[in-house]
Amino acid sequence: MRRTAAALAITAAALVTPGVAHAQATDDYQGCPSGYVCIYPNASWNNGVPEHRYYNYQAYDLTNEFGVHRIFNNQTGGATVQTCKGYGGSNCGDKMAPWTYRDEDLTPINSILLQS
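^ thats the sequence. predicted structure below, dont judge the formating
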């Protein structure tokens, strides 16, 4: 009986654990889909409505972005995002790890760079 209960407990743990890890890796948060970098129009989550969403690993030029915005990296697998003073992903700052956000003045920022 003890052996059966122990086997059942181990099987249940094996079934639950991968689901939890998978759910965390694929969650949308504050309107930002999993795998995306989202920019919000001010230093808040804007009721879960991002202003911009970016997905592909590349540089994206920004236009008419002034003042403090929230940048959220909801990418997976260690992918990073950088804000850059130059166009085309040049003169970039520090990398932001997945599942982090930063409130940043985008006035001097002209592009962002998504990398794997």
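The two ends are 49 Å apart (CA to CA).
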